[in-house]
Design brief:
The chain has 481 residues and is mostly helical. The chain has one domain. The protein contains 18 helices and two strands. It has a two-stranded antiparallel sheet. Helix 3 packs across helix 7 and helix 13 packs across helix 17. The longest helix is centred in the first third of the chain and has 43 residues. The protein starts with a strand and ends with a helix. GO terms for molecular function: antiporter activity; xenobiotic transmembrane transporter activity. This is Protein DETOXIFICATION. One of its GO terms (biological process) is xenobiotic detoxification by transmembrane export across the plasma membrane. Its main location: membrane. It is found in: Membrane.
Length: 481
């Protein structure tokens, strides 16, 4: 590639002294780093990798917060409509839609491995095929999951909700079925765009959707008095606005060779793709801590793109170093947020309740919450590395064993059998997450990154790619940006 120099001793390429490239090209430049032989080299490479990570993580965090806020805003306005309406929206969002959101996001995460590694290897044409293949699988899954929406009322009755809340939430759930299919379209699109470092367009679309959602929620739910019907119309509309806007961006030709039109190849290798998607879904068994975890979600997406791109480009040292930078950065961010929480532990409970007993309990739980934030900032980064490297199946087993077979039962024993209450339940689940994080650390520490780069090449061939020259891949990428 013109403007690059080759160090034949260390086998890595480094851009020569040329003017800074545009942002879109900057993120797609790929080179393997030199061996880290001194603190100066470590510091230099740390800063370079941090810039690449934050270019991806910043907009990804913003996008996650905006999309997370759609449901939160709907709940906020539902609370002004009435207590029953608030309960109905809250239960549907957290139980029905929340469960399906996790499955769709997890299954869509299979594309982080395939699209990221294909992009790193210059196999741009495969990205669109992978996305279409994921659409087929996720929309088919939605047909099954829609039964949860249809039978939400008896399901909620069965798990102990009151008859009134079950009836209202059940009706609202049926109206929210279009949102389910928006999830199925949205998450593959996002992974498709993330793999190409086209993050800012998603952030702008998410911001526009949030503003529109806020205004229309006020108009339909409060001003026009549509209540839950208005909530369903606006929430469905906002999610489909995101999907359609992103599709318009893709179909307009801005993704170059990554989108070459609809293809029947989307229906090939579906069973293997299903297995990878299901393994990805099982990986997402994290304990969600509101907006704070959106930071870790953004870093999860960024490190997944970086690792998959570098492995696909046969740059094992760069992939490993990206992991190191992401873990350090996430730990520092988690530590900073935890310290702020502890410093204001006597003040922030007043934002949520005026009840003195509730405030006292929140203050008591703050140290555990702070520790949770640190762990839940690091664990998603390790999961993002796993997705980028294609270890979904292995990590799915780790998650099941550590979290569901160990952490959750321990929490139930501590909370109910030993009568420690909510602290016991939380402690058990947190212990499961800690064990899960430690196991992931061990897996990452023992990884042969040269072997992973070789496996990435084999994976690209398996899923329909062909071995082209790296120069052709870079040239194609430069043309599209």
């Amino acid at each position: 590639m013109e403007g690059e120099g080759q160090d034949h001793n260390n086998n890595y390429t480094r851009p020569l002294l040329t003017p800074p490239p545009p942002a879109a090209v900057f993120t797609t430049e790929s080179h393997d780093i030199p061996p880290i032989s001194s603190p100066r080299i470590f510091g230099r490479e740390f800063l370079l990798e941090s810039k690449k990570l934050w270019y991806l993580a910043g907009p990804a965090i913003f996008t996650s917060v905006c999309q997370y806020s759609l449901g939160a805003i709907t709940q906020l306005f539902a609370g002004h409509v009435g207590t029953l309406e608030l309960a109905a929206v809250s239960v549907e969002n957290s139980v029905i839609a929340g469960f399906c959101f996790g499955i769709m996001l997890g299954m869509g995460s299979a594309l982080e491995t395939l699209c990221g590694q294909a992009f790193g290897a210059g196999q741009l044409r495969m990205l669109g095929i992978y996305m279409q293949r994921s659409w087929v699988i996720l929309n088919t899954t939605c047909l099954i999951l829609s039964l949860l929406y249809v039978f939400a009322k008896p399901l909620l009755n069965f798990i102990g909700q009151t008859a009134a809340i079950s009836k209202a939430a059940g009706e609202f759930a049926v109206w929210m079925i279009p949102q389910l299919f928006a999830y199925a379209m949205n998450f593959p699109i996002q992974k498709f765009l993330q793999a190409q470092s086209k993050i800012m367009v998603m952030a702008w679309i998410a911001a526009a959707a949030l503003v529109m959602h806020l205004l229309l929620s006020w108009l339909l739910m409060l001003r026009l008095g549509w209540g839950l019907v208005g909530a369903a119309v606006v929430l469905n509309g906002s999610w489909w606005f995101i999907v359609v806007a992103q599709l318009v961006y893709i179909l307009s030709g801005t993704c170059g060779n990554a989108w070459s039109g609809f293809s029947l190849k989307a229906f090939e290798n579906l069973w293997g793709f299903v297995r990878l998607s299901l393994a990805s879904a099982v990986m997402l068994c994290m304990n969600i801590l509101g907006w704070t975890v959106m930071v870790s979600f953004g870093m999860n997406a960024a490190v997944s793109v970086r690792v998959s791109n570098e492995l696909g480009a046969s740059h094992p040292r760069a992939a490993k170093f990206s992991l190191v930078v992401a873990v350090i950065t996430s730990f520092v961010l988690g530590l900073a947020m935890s310290l702020v929480l502890i410093m204001f532990r006597k003040q922030y409970p007043s934002l949520f309740s005026n009840d003195s007993a509730v405030k006292e309990l929140v203050m008591e739980l703050t140290p555990m919450l702070a520790f949770c934030i640190i762990i839940n900032n690091v664990q998603p980064v390790l999961s993002g590395v796993a997705v980028g490297a294609g270890w979904q199946s292995l990590v799915a087993y780790v998650n099941i064993a550590c979290y569901y077979l160990f952490g959750v039962p321990l929490g139930l024993i501590l909370g109910y059998a030993l009568d420690f209450g909510v602290i016991g339940i939380w402690s058990g689940m947190l212990t499961g997450t800690i064990v899960q994080t430690c196991v992931l650390f061990i897996i990452v520490y023992r990884t042969d990154w040269d072997k992973e780069a070789s496996l990435a090449e084999d994976r690209i061939k398996k899923w329909g790619g062909h071995k082209d020259s790296k120069s052709n891949g870079v040239a194609n990428n430069d043309q599209q940006t």
